[in-house]
Design brief:
Chain A: This is Iron ABC transporter permease. The complex is a heterodimer of chains A (578) and B (369). Chain A is mainly α. Chain A has 23 helices and two strands. Chain A has a domain of 287 residues: MetI-like fold. The N terminus and C terminus of chain A are likely disordered. Classes of the chains: A mainly alpha (578), B alpha+beta (369).
């Protein structure tokens, strides 16, 4: 995945000539954390999959059983086809938005890019129910279509529903990566082709699209993996014959000793790894960022009137579609009754009142868990980044690789691993460690660590080593230099990383759904999931969903704002230096 | 591409005619009524400082910029309204713009494929073009695996393989190191002579333009200042900008006067008077210009000879450059540079020494800005 390819071009720094005891201690502490809460649980899952249930001996029989069970084989192919179709549909949404906003000068390009990212700031399963009400058999769209044209389109029937909801939710990954790639193409690339007689679609097909391919592949593989691993969306849409839901159902209904849950987990991990490896392999040596010396990307052209009409129509359609879950969720949260009608019968605030009076616990838990997890991520991420970039601790690289490996571990697998590993470990009060609320925090922290680590590494790379050397030269010790010079300079990047981790952890469900034991310990996403299960709870669920969207939305805006301000401040000092 | 093909192409080389071009970006006028005639087969340069409009003018010929007024004729045909892909004007980009997802061979083949040339013919001509630039053995590399000079040659091959009517080069040497630059400019000249292609070369480096171009158009602030051979521009610049942009120039302010029935140029700050040649009619506000090597330093007491004039001054600084010695001589309020060829064993003149600067009257220029 190009976005996360580690760049250590600055080389293992030469600042300190030998390894200090403090560094060794930090290394061991982080290593222990990663081993206990990432490596061991995943290893436990893998081992369990290869172990005979009765004797504990090594066996492949569990995998054979998997292949012999029609339901599981069907689930596997369903997962593959849903993921593949989601990539296709997501590309259909993303391509016109990316193309129009990067190639043409027109009002609203910035709005399109912003609105296009909004689906991400919401748990996909939260929108699923709203999508049922809008696009389901008796939803708004089909009721209107039936009234006007006498037709009914099965948007949400079976796997269609999962594909539709997932592609609407995850298409921004393709939009963001593809737009970045398109913007990085130097206009001379296109002009050279025009100069040699190429134009129009041929030019797009032969030059522009191949050059943007790395971005597209990065986005597409991300969508594929996310959809393949997602648990809550199919469950909420009542689709059970997919892999991740099967793993969940096996463990929760049959128990943690049933080997099939582990086999499915291994298949999930293997598939994630293969998808990541394939995308890296396919794009090896293809870093096509070709802009030079502020030459600016592709030439933007003015749209002719005819183009503009088509463009606006396409963009409006796509945006209506991708913003539908939000609109639907908002409507639901204010609705008294909404079924078999295009719009709710009447509106009320009682769901919000109910949420705040009865379910405040969920919100409080979410804020607590997400901020603890994000705090752990930033601390661990900064320490790893510092060890890798600024010390001679060779083993630090392995911390980095291990932390990044969490990308390939689906949430449901991590949750199963925690149950497997820590169910037998009891706390002093007799509670199983696996059911202790803090384990949810740890799971969230491990899940978000790869993203936080990259943010921390980037932040540290921007702090010139000579600034540290200057502090040491003036008599500051290593620790004081870090505290007084390095950390303040990294603050912007770290805060942005914290907020991103916080926001994504706040709506994470796939790992927590395995670990939540009581409603009192449940975070918002779990509560939302429980509410959405029953028609009566939908109003309150939607209200909770709207609150989640607001939390994530505000955080995303904040992180963007902080990152921008930080960049502006840095470039200011840069200008003064020249 | 064999010898006959070259000859045939030279016979049909196209001239370029630029007529009354006006081009603005918003309120900024980038090109102001530009007129230029470039002869078939000529190696022509657009020379000027950055921001003078030379690249804009080149891109206009290629069709990437659109003028508000005026037209461009290639080989007598008005191409002003044609899109870039229908102009048949070959351009080599400053960044080379080699497509990183294609091998060298596919890069070079691209233009032929777009023209629907048969596959066998494409392969043959790509081979020939790569041989022409000496890169036949690297055809299957990716551009990123080539050095800067090699990339430059691939960009050239990619452009000339389609046998365009004219060849446009946008600062083609600016991305190369100094040594390679000298080598590549010879190769460029060889190639241009071999193909007989009408070529326009954009540069801000006067040495580059002087060494390889038949004629040069000097641009400044969107206006063509002067068109001529390198020697004409150097020896007979039409204004102070051209004089200063091509080589070192001594420029002395002053005013025209009548002195004893004869017209003279009186140097400001009491630097002395210079007689004007009889037919010379200097423009309003003109300043005196001469090149450092067109003056001699003689003892203050020596008498002037016919056709020469003398200014009294004082040595204020000197730089020993090896083959020459560059003296800074103060004349009145102005300082000027005088280059003297160095002879073995000859001592340098002392600082503060009074000297006479000896000038040939007919080598002096009177220029306005």
């Amino acid at each position: 995945m190009t976005a996360f390819s580690t760049a250590y071009s600055s080389g293992a720094a030469s600042a300190s000539s030998r390894v200090r005891p403090g560094q060794t201690a930090a290394l061991l502490l982080i290593a222990a954390f990663l081993v206990l809460f990432l490596v061991a649980p995943v290893a436990a899952v893998v081992v369990a999959a290869f172990r005979d249930k009765a004797t504990g001996a090594f066996t492949l029989i569990n995998f054979l059983d998997f292949l012999r069970t029609d339901l599981l084989v069907r689930s596997f192919w369903n997962s593959v086809s849903v993921s593949a179709m989601s990539v296709v549909l997501a590309s259909v949404f993303a391509l016109p938005l990316a193309y129009y906003t990067t190639r043409f000068e027109f009002r609203g390009a910035a709005i399109v890019q912003t609105l296009g990212v909004i689906p991400l700031i919401m748990p996909p399963f939260a929108g699923a129910v709203a999508m049922q009400l809008l696009f389901g058999r008796n939803g708004t769209v089909n009721l209107l279509l039936g009234e006007w044209f006498g037709i009914n389109i099965p948007f949400m029937e079976g796997l269609n529903g999962v594909i539709f909801v997932q592609s609407v939710h995850y298409f921004p990954f393709i939009l963001i990566n593809l737009s970045a790639s398109l913007r990085n193409i130097d206009r001379a690339m296109e002009e050279a082709a025009q100069n040699l007689g190429s134009s129009g679609l041929r030019l797009f097909r032969r030059i522009v699209f191949p050059l943007a391919m790395p971005g597209f592949v990065a986005g597409a593989s991300l969508v594929f993996i996310k959809v393949f691993d997602d648990l809550a969306t199919p469950l909420l849409l009542n689709v059970k014959d997919m892999l991740a839901p099967q793993a969940y159902l096996r463990i929760t209904s049959i128990g943690i000793s049933d080997p099939m849950g582990y086999v499915i987990s291994v298949v999930l991990i293997a598939f994630s790894l293969v998808a990541m490896w394939l995308s890296t392999f396919a794009m090896r040596g293809k870093d096509y960022a070709t802009t030079q010396r502020g030459g600016g990307g592709l030439a933007k052209r003015r749209m002719r009137r005819r183009d503009a009409v088509v463009a606006y129509a396409v963009i409006a359609l796509v945006l209506l579609l991708v913003l539908a879950p939000h609109a639907g969720l908002a409507l639901m949260s204010f609705a008294t009754i909404w079924s078999y009608s295009p719009l709710p019968d009447a509106y009320t605030l009682k769901h919000y009142v109910a949420v705040f009076s009865d379910s405040g616990r969920y919100i409080w838990n979410t804020l607590l868990y997400a901020s603890l997890a994000a705090g752990i991520d930033i601390a661990v991420g900064t320490a790893i980044a510092y060890l890798v970039l600024r010390t001679r601790v060779k083993a630090a690289r392995w911390l980095d690789y291990t932390a990044m490996a969490a990308l390939a571990v689906p949430g449901v697998v991590l949750g199963i691993g925690y149950l497997r590993t820590y169910y037998g470990v009891t706390l002093p009060n007799g509670q199983a460690l696996a059911t202790f609320w803090f384990v949810i925090v740890l799971a969230l922290a491990v899940r978000r660590l790869p993203y936080a680590l990259r943010a921390c590494t980037a932040a540290l790379q921007q702090v010139s080593q000579s600034l540290e050397e200057a502090a040491e030269n003036l008599g500051a010790t290593k620790m004081r230099t870090i505290r007084r010079v390095v950390l303040p300079l990294m603050t912007g990047g770290l805060v942005a990383g914290f907020v991103t981790s916080f926001a994504t952890a706040a709506v994470e469900l796939s790992a927590t759904i395995m670990l939540v034991q009581s409603n009192a310990d449940a975070p918002l996403a779990y509560g939302l999931y429980v509410f959405m299960q029953s028609p009566a709870g939908r109003g309150a669920g939607a209200a909770l969903g709207v609150i989640a969207v607001l939390i994530v939305g505000v955080c995303t805006y904040l992180s963007h704002h902080i990152a921008e301000r930080d960049r502006a401040a840095k470039s200011e000092t840069g200008a003064r230096r020249q | 591409m064999n010898v006959h093909a070259h000859a045939a192409q030279r016979a049909q080389a196209a001239g370029i005619s630029i007529q009354g071009i006006d081009l603005s970006y918003g309120a900024t006028r980038v090109l102001k009524s530009v007129d230029l005639e470039i002869e078939p087969g000529e190696f022509f340069a657009f020379l000027g400082p950055s921001g003078c409009g030379k690249t804009t003018l080149l891109r206009l010929i290629a069709g990437f910029n659109v003028a508000q007024a005026g037209k461009v004729l290639v080989g007598g045909r008005d191409v002003s309204t044609l899109p870039p892909w229908k102009r048949d004007v070959g351009m080599v980009f400053q960044s080379y713009a080699l497509w990183p997802h294609m091998s060298v061979r596919r890069n070079v083949a691209f233009g032929l494929e777009e023209r629907g040339v048969r596959r066998a013919e494409v392969e043959r001509r790509v081979e020939a073009a790569l041989e022409l630039v000496g890169l036949g053995h690297l055809a299957d590399r990716k551009p990123s695996q080539l050095s800067g000079g090699q990339q430059q040659r691939v960009a050239l091959a990619r452009t000339v393989v389609v046998e365009p009517k004219v060849l446009l080069l946008d600062e083609p040497l600016s991305n190369l190191d100094a040594k390679l630059r000298v080598q590549m400019r010879r190769e460029l000249l060889d190639l241009q002579r071999k193909l007989g292609l009408t070529t326009i070369f954009v540069t801000h480096d006067q040495e580059e333009a002087n060494t390889i171009c038949d004629r040069i158009a000097v641009l400044n602030e969107g206006v063509v200042q002067q068109v001529g051979t390198p020697m004409e521009l150097y020896d007979r610049p039409v204004n102070l900008f051209v004089a200063g942009f091509l080589g070192t120039a001594n420029i002395l302010p002053g005013e025209l006067k009548s002195s004893g029935g004869e017209r003279v140029f009186a140097i400001a700050g009491g630097g002395g008077e210079v007689p004007l040649p009889r037919r010379e009619l200097p423009p309003m506000g003109a300043k005196l210009m001469f090149r450092p090597q067109n003056a001699a330093i003689v003892p203050a007491s020596a008498p002037a000879t016919a056709g020469r004039t003398r200014l009294m001054g004082r040595v204020s600084h000197c730089e020993f450059l090896g083959g020459t010695v560059r003296y800074v001589v103060k004349i009145g309020a102005a300082e000027m540079l005088i280059d003297v060829a160095h002879q073995a064993g000859e001592p340098l003149l002392d600082h503060g020494r009074d000297v006479a600067v000896d000038l040939a009257v007919d080598k002096l220029c009177y220029l306005a800005s």
